[in-house]
Design goal:
Helix content: 40-55%
Strand content: 5-15%
Structural class: alpha/beta
Radius of gyration: 21 Å
Shape: globular
Largest sheet: 6 strands, parallel
CATH superfamily of the largest domain: Glycogen Phosphorylase B
CATH class of the largest domain: Alpha Beta
Order of helices and strands: EHEEHEHHEHEHEHEHEHEHEHHH
CATH architecture of the largest domain: 3-Layer(aba) Sandwich
Distance between the termini: 10 Å
Number of strands: 11
Number of helices: 13
Length: 352
């Protein structure tokens, strides 16, 4: 089987999306799949049995359809209108209520823009992404969401009819390990790009003098230099450090020195850094917006990114608690890249 894992310009901005693509390809090769990664704008799709899309635009998907090459899509989908990510999605009534609430919030946001005289622009911007996602997902043969919650949201939010096959996000268990012996863990850590949706600014504002040292490690997102500057300006407390980004291979040492890892994003499909940190011995504080709860269940501490007091409370509880070893075992049992590769290969076989 020859597969093209394709993400145009995905190598220009490092992050979880790129790690997911490259690690999936790497472990697919271990299963005997000839997996080729491309970040180019054009590729000879006719030379492959399947194209695995990571954010390809409709024009590229149309090219695949015309060449009669099946397409599977890793959506990495999030919706601004659905942010609770709670495990309340098991019944038809609950799904309908959640869909209704999402549309009500969406309508309220448009009403606010109308009051500000920006209704036309707001409608165009808000609907553009939903329409784009609906088109690309409907053009594919199979969707590979990272969780059952994500699959349910895609169906509820977009009404897409393309079948879904859940493929978990994962971590490299050989690279992210516990340290040798007992070591001091004197700080809390945030690792990731500095950009608005990761909410470092909210984390900085929530931090105060009675919390431990916080190290924020990451490079500025190239599209958000002003946000990075604002974070630096507001990180004046002595117990906050903003450090430059490091290579992915250097992250284990940082995780192994931290007692907790904090990710108070406005949304997360999972948060690869949380998985990595947990394998290295960190307690996990993560957002309650998105789908992280499906992975971490009650083995992490959750915070509302809009409520600084919930960030502080979650941090204090995680800092005082012993390491949640069952979470590490859960990740090793279900969320390594070998699990991802096997689930991905099953999806390919379903399509073929």
């Amino acid at each position: 089987m020859r597969v093209l894992l394709w993400m145009i310009d995905g190598d220009t901005i490092p992050g979880g999306h790129r790690v997911q693509l490259e690690q999936t390809a790497r472990f697919l090769c271990e299963l005997g799949v000839e997996a080729e990664v491309s970040y180019q704008g054009e590729m000879p799709v006719e030379n492959f049995d399947i194209v695995h899309s990571f954010g390809l635009p409709p024009q590229r998907l149309r090219r695949c359809r015309q060449a009669r090459v099946p397409v599977v899509v890793s959506p990495i989908y999030w919706a601004r209108s659905y942010t609770e990510g709670e495990d309340r999605t098991h019944t038809t009534k609950v799904e309908a209520a959640r869909s209704l609430m999402g549309r009500m919030r969406y309508g309220a946001s448009l009403w606010r823009e109308t009051v500000r005289g920006r209704a036309s622009y707001a409608c165009e911007e808000k609907n553009k992404r939903l329409t784009y996602c609906r088109i690309t997902y409907e053009m594919s043969d199979l969707l590979l969401p990272n969780s059952q919650l994500e699959a349910q949201i895609i169906i509820a939010d977009l009404g897409v009819t393309t079948p879904c096959h859940v493929v978990p996000n994962a971590v490299d268990a050989a690279r992210f390990t516990l340290p040798d012996g007992e070591i001091k863990r004197p700080y809390a850590l945030f690792a990731g790009r500095l950009e608005p949706h990761k909410n470092q600014l909210g984390l900085i504002r929530a931090w105060n003098g009675d919390l431990p040292l916080l190290k924020i490690v990451g490079q500025a997102h190239p599209h958000h230099p002003a946000y990075y500057a604002k974070c630096q300006k507001e990180a004046r407390a002595k117990n906050i450090e903003i450090l430059p980004g490091v290579l992915h291979d250097e992250l284990p040492t940082l995780y192994q020195g931290a007692k907790i890892h904090v990710l108070p994003s406005w949304y997360e499909t999972t948060g690869l850094v949380s998985l990595e940190a947990a394998l290295c011995g960190c307690n996990i504080v993560t957002t309650d917006r998105g789908f992280s709860r499906e992975y971490f269940q009650d083995l992490a501490w959750y915070c509302d990114p809009a409520q600084p007091e919930t960030i502080r409370l979650a941090v204090k509880k995680a800092w005082q608690a012993p390491f949640q070893a069952p979470l590490r075992e859960r990740i090793l049992d279900s969320y390594t890249w070998r699990h991802t590769a096997r689930a991905t290969l099953k999806g390919y076989q379903m399509v073929l």
